[in-house]
Amino acid sequence: MQAFTTLLKSSPVIPVLTIDRVEDAAPLAVALKQGGLCVVEVTLRTPAALDSITAMKRAVPSLIVGAGTILKPADLDAAMSAGSDFIVTPATTRALVAPLKSCGVPVIPGVATPSEVLERLDDGFEVLKLFPAEQYGGAATIAALSGPLPHARFCPTGGIGRDKVESYLALKNVVGVGGSWIATPKQIANGDWTGITENARAAAAFARA
Known about the structure:
Radius of gyration: 16 Å
Strand content: 5-15%
Shape: globular
Number of helices: 10
Catalytic activity: 2-dehydro-3-deoxy-6-phospho-D-gluconate = D-glyceraldehyde 3-phosphate + pyruvate
Mean pLDDT: 96
InterPro entries: Aldlse_KDPG_KHG (IPR000887), Aldolase_TIM (IPR013785), KDPG/KHG_AS_1 (IPR031337), KDPG/KHG_AS_2 (IPR031338)
Organism: Niveispirillum lacus
Largest sheet: 6 strands, parallel
Keywords: Carbohydrate metabolism, Lyase, Schiff base
Oligomer: single chain
EC number: 4.1.2.14
Low-confidence stretches: none
């Protein structure tokens, strides 16, 4: 996980992708990579998600493709079979903890409260996903958590637009942020690869800054 955390710090803005058609996966992967991004998350919210993860890995093998919206152990098994490089959950039940810890790839478990943060840290997870971040107070909440929980590290997602990225990345306890603005479902459906590449360049610029 330490190597993955270091990777996040160098490429801290992660596109959170909802893909409806498998045929969009390969050109999407190329567009994001051309824009300078190397870490992406595909949400398991559509029937095409798992095959899209596989297709993105085949199209751009160097792209780090994770699976999000893991809700139960069966989702985790399917995501691993699809070739996921890392795993993200929106929340984390006790039934998920053991499978997540033994899956063999980095995991970013979802949390929403200080108690959940402590529980996931006690479970041995290093980076946590505050979700939905904006609805739970945004960067101000994460800044407040750094007082009593200075060892917690976050990769928040949920409602984080391009205009909010900088405020999150300015926090020492944030190693990355996820956002759907880089490649929206509408852009993907319309095949707007040029626009997605431009958004990816804008996201990559936050890392350089």
